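Researcher: Quick one. two chains, 851 residues in total.
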Amino acid sequence: MLAFLIRRLVSLVPVLALVLVIVFSLVRLIPGDPATTLLGPGATDTQIAALRAQLNLDEPALLQFWHYLTGLAQGDLGTSLKSGEPVLSEVLLRLPATLEISVAAVLVAIVVGIPIGVLSATRANSAFDHVVRIVSLTGVSMPAFLLALLLQLVFASWLGWLPVSGRMSSYLFVDHVTGFALIDAWLSGEPGAVTSVLSHMILPVTVLAAFLAATIGRFVRAAMLETLGEDYVRTARAKGLSRREVIYNHALRTSLLPAITVVGLKFAEMLGGAILTETIFSWPGIGRFMFEAIRNRDYPGHPRDNAGVCAAVHADVAAGRCALCPA
Amino acid sequence: MRLTRRIFGALSGAALALAGLPFAPHGAFAQEASTLVIAVPSDPAGLEPGINKAEPVGSEIILNVFDTLVAWSAPGFAQMEGRLATEWTISDDGKTFGFTLRDGVMFHDGTPFNAEAVKFSIERTVGMNPYVKATLGLIERIETPSASQVVFTLSRPYPAFLSILAQPQSAIVSPTAVAASGEGFATNPVGTGPFKFRAYQADTRVVLDANPDYFRGAPSLARLIYTIIPEASTRRLELENGGVDIIQQAGQLSAVPTEEMAAFASNPNIKIIESPSQIIRQLEFNNSLTDSPFADVRVRRAIASAIDYDGLLAGVFGGTAERVYGPLTSNSWAFDPAVKDLAPSYDPEAAKALLAEAGVNPADLNVKLYSFQGSLWGAVATFVQANLADIGVKVEIAQTEFPSYRALHVAGEWQMALDGRQPWYNDPDAHITIGYLSSLKDSAMTFRMPENVDLDSKILMAQGAADMDKRKALYSEIQKEIVEFVPGAFLFSPKLIVFARSNISGLVINSAPPLNEYWSVSKN
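Model:
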């Protein structure tokens, strides 16, 4: 197990290197530079030149890349050109917001996706199964931003049942303690704050969970159908084990392997920040930060996130799959 | 751990239980009656004068947390009133400005406001803020003959100095608080204003609490919250749903499209407050290109005559913008009404005739019209394109993202472009100097005027003349000269529009800089 993990981690290095080079170059190929964006339309060239010099944007690209790599090796992710704060602290500041909805989304997706997948498989080709398959196909194919906009329009605008955006009602204010809105709201004792946070989480979590739940459901269904036809399952039934025992203790366990892979990949991706979902719901997470960083040509602000996501994906999935393999 | 049905059941049950929780309907919080929520598109760039630049969010917060010596009086903004100063004098040579300060004013930290604080604040801002070099940088020395008197001596006459002192960059900070916080003052600003700074949560909100000891009287509101919502459509939904109280379309480049004005107009819960601005948006020619067909004034006049100005104001803006005839808006004190007759008016036949006279075949003019991004600019560009198509000129629209757009504009790689200026202080100098001074053409987004010693010197003279009447006369000449040159087609001046819940009253909307003051606001 350890050797396996070490091999996987080592294989991260070339992937990471490639990602870093690509992201670094791509971002700098976009015309227009941070100094211009920071100063706005009314600025003169002298002002812009002064800012560029101040921000070391005049260094040759290779030298900038070298600084970037050495900084990264020391855990220094650079300083945001927009805020002047270290990128690491900017990302960590926004991490709890993304974590909150990502974890909730994964939990919801598992709780919804697995049972639906099982029921669909055990009632294969019934009306229920057909409905589920159509709905999950939609869930998998619909772009997240479209779902987000639709849900926002229907539930927030037309019906008025749920809030439009943000983590909490704009009229409330709680002090920032942990960065997790639920915990901070509860700690503050402000009446109505916790309920407000919960109701604000519903739509973004639904959007994030939708794709995942649909995917999990489909994987579980497919894998279960396959497993239920296997010899060892028929043997187990012949031995007298109940249908329920067979499904949950034998078939499901095997079927969960591909599901775990997907959950791991998607969770790591979500941690990178669901950019469009966070923007539509004004969720102050990493995704929105990355989006703004690209828009503002805040070079230090984004490359690391992508690299980090790739690394996390490999490690995460590898570990998860290991755990499920029969010993 | 075994995956049992019980565990699934428990989790599903929990999920359902959560879903069944009562959702607080809007208006359920007690705080809502005394809290004003303003939705803004971005984080403030700086919360104190020492780092402030011409950016709407931070600048507006500064105007509400701090005070300046003087300010322009609502609602006309043609007269000045004293805030931290009660009286002032200007020397005959226009270089010395003396102020008598108000007594009994305290900073939010309890320390007294006095002449030393003024001297400290302005000198500090000049020392640390690169954006004030051209304006506050003209100060040679600041003297404090007494605790309630302050005298500024400039290096050259600069009548717009009073306007500069009304800007957020000239706000007065608490020297004690600066000494105590050091670098942290930017995240903990202390001023004398109607609201005290309470908290800033990045990407989320800025919270200001009322200052009960404010010298003009305590505000009606107990709290002001700026909530940061980057998407315009989300801000609109929030306003409609009662999630926020105010959203603004301060003539910004990518604001709420004017089509949605109609939606708000029919909504009884929302009122629309319009106010004239000093913003000018225009179609510019690259006036430095010598070998372009647009180097001929007849061609320029033809293009300018092909545009249906009133149609643009009615069709695209639905009455939310006003006509502009030249380099200044009609509400500027230096505006010369004579330009109304000199400016080209909509006459497609005359346009075609002018092109013929200039020997230019409209079919040969294949022009790329550059523009900022956003639906507002897109609509304007499309309208212009249609107008020019009517006289046979083919226009290709190239909406370009800002930093790239500026780069190509300043490099002169264009023939026609949509551009504009939002002046950040209330003086004709704000439009005329940066837009038309030929020496600035390679370093800023301008009309790229060709070198004209006469016009350039008039512009600089008007900037520095101490006598108001002399300035007015000079600006009159400058306006007429510019309009006759036809450096572009002056298209529109967007009104400053604030969309507010109907129960809001008492809002003050400044014209330049276009920032709101909330001291007098109340919720009924």
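Residues 468-485 of chain B form the longest helix (18 residues).
Researcher: Thanks, that's what I needed.
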